[in-house]
Amino acid sequence: MAILTSPRSLDRNGPPSSPPAAGGRRRSLVVEWLGHPQASYFLVLVPTLLLLALGSMMVLSASSVYAFVKFGDAYYFVKRHVVFLLLGGLAAWYLGRSSPRRLKIIGWGALAFAFIMQLLTFTSLGFAKNGNRNWVDIGFGLGRVQPSEFAKLAIVLWGAAILASKHKLLDRPKHLLVPFVPVSLLLIGLVILQRDLGTGMVLGAIVVAVLWFVGAPWRLLGAMLGSVGVVVAALVATSASRMGRILGFLNQDLDPLGVNHQPIKAMFALASGGWWGLGLGASRQKWGGLVESHTDYVLAVIGEELGLVGTLLVLALFLTLGYAGFRVAMRSDIRFCRYASAGVTSWLMIQTLVNIGVVLRMIPVLGVPLPLLSYGGSALLANLCGIGILLACARQEPQARTFATRRRRRQRKAKVSTIVPAEMGTLRR
């Protein structure tokens, strides 16, 4: 007997399904990969490793001439960079395997360390560089440490611990602000007393970002931003060097051999790179024109040697890292991990935007390094500690915890099966 199908049922069921297009398959694979329990972990790890590899290569390229002229060793800076890279890698590995409870304890230790080191800058151990007394000579052949870099880590980690412990009271402004804001302002005040306004502004932006993510009302954030703006304006108006930077930014033809020397050379480097760059190691500005080529202006050397393509690759890696960090914050069901990952990501992204803005002459010079890429032992060590916190929080995502538990169970069963025969196991059951 023939089965008749009405036109309506044909319309409802539709024609036989056709194989998906190539673009659809690619999208489905991406969606499937992003849905993996460990996707966030590798989204943090892979861009970090690529940025570190690129940073080491560019530090070698950008600093070789200056290092040879000053120290007689073209590898002077890159060797020190690798030492701090290894130390930071060990710290990131340890923090990445730490539990939230351990990270909270480390946060209190980081806060105490930051305060002690900040106070040491005002003693005989303090060291001034470029007009800023923000270095501590620790001796024993270990060189100098910049405590303000670890203040960023302390504010994020300790702040996350405090805010997570008071989550039931955060709807009250008093508990939202105290003690997080006063302690943070004290650290920021010590940094400003060291005459490092750029780092102080980054620290203030991190505090505001953490409060915003926690859920602070807009009127409170607006009042804080307004107060910060007034303080910054007063500090700029009372300092001749800071006013010079502002005037140099407003008039980019002013004092090309002084306040605008570095910004002009950075733009020359970016412009001469073109699409594909001059080639690795072929930078012209590193031969004396761009003095800070391996530190604050390493992006300019990247643009000169690797071109616009290399610069966009760097931006893509930072965007991926930022997406991964906020993804961890949004997916976490542990308040501490949520606040800590949001704070670390805000810190890295804010500092990245500031550095890029300075290199592109979109904002005045602030003396802020590019995370994971610029030369600087203290900054690199602090950045990698932040990456370790992100990795630890990524491991604490609900799906990641379930996946890790199942894998451990399978591993234990596999070990038991290799020792106990299957028949014996069956008899025991």
Structural key phrases:
single chain, 429 residues, mainly alpha, 17 helices, globular, disordered N terminus, disordered C terminus
Structural notes for this entry:
With 429 residues, this protein is mostly helical. It has one domain. Helices cover 70% and strands 3% of the residues. The protein has a three-stranded antiparallel β-sheet with strand order 1-2-3, covered by helices on one side. Helix 9 (197-214) packs antiparallel against helix 10 (218-237). 41% of the residues are buried. The model is unreliable at 1-15 and 423-429 (pLDDT under 50).
Reading the helices and strands in chain order gives HHHHHEEEHHHHHHHHHHHH
**SS elements, strand count:** 3
Average pLDDT for all residues: 88
Assign a percent range to the helix content.
Answer: over 70%
Strand content: under 5%
Question: Strand count, sense and closure of the main sheet?
Answer: 3 strands, antiparallel
The N- and C-terminal alpha carbons lie at a distance of 55 Å
Low-confidence stretches: 1-15, 423-429
What would the principal axes of the Cα set say about the shape?
A: globular
Number of helices: 17
Structural class: mainly alpha
